[in-house]
Amino acid sequence: MSERDREKDEEEREFDLRWAEGAASKEPSARARMLAAKWKEEPPEAVPFRGEPVGRRRRLRVPRVRLGAGSPWRSVVVVFGTIAVVIVVLGYTGFQGF
């Protein structure tokens, strides 16, 4: 295909797109027409967004606080304790900074 043929194809395609977008009315897709006809006879039931499954109760989740080795407070105490030790050591050695 020559360069001139490509340009001609692009011009025709651009014309077709402009012509289609400029149409006074647009026809719905086949699926949209099918659903509209079906729903005219029997409208769909209202369905809540992400509704609860039928037959199951909703469980309230309450976070459990564990005071064992995996406690989040233990990590906080270790971090702040380490910072306090570093501050005391730097103060004891007379660290002056820059």
Structure description:
By secondary structure, the chain is mostly helical. It has helices spanning 3-21, 30-41, 72-93. The longest helix has 22 residues, at 72-93. It is flat and about 85 Å long. The chain starts with a helix and ends in a 5-residue tail after the last helix.
Blueprint (SSEs and pairs):
Elements: H1 3-21, H2 30-41, H3 72-93
Question: What's this, in brief?
Answer:
By secondary structure, the protein is mainly alpha-helical. The protein has helices at about 5-20, 30-40, 70-95.
Q: Taking Cα atoms only, what radius of gyration do you get, to the nearest Å?
A: 35 Å
Percent of sequence in beta strands: under 5%
Total helices: the number is: 3
**How many strands, which pairing sense, and closed or not: the largest β-sheet?**
none
Order of helices and strands: HHH
Q: State the helicity in percent bands.
A: 40-55%
Low-confidence stretches: none
Give the overall form: flat
Instruction: Please provide the count of β strands.
Output: 0
- Decide which structural class fits the backbone: mainly alpha
N-to-C span: 73 Å
- The residue-averaged pLDDT reads 77
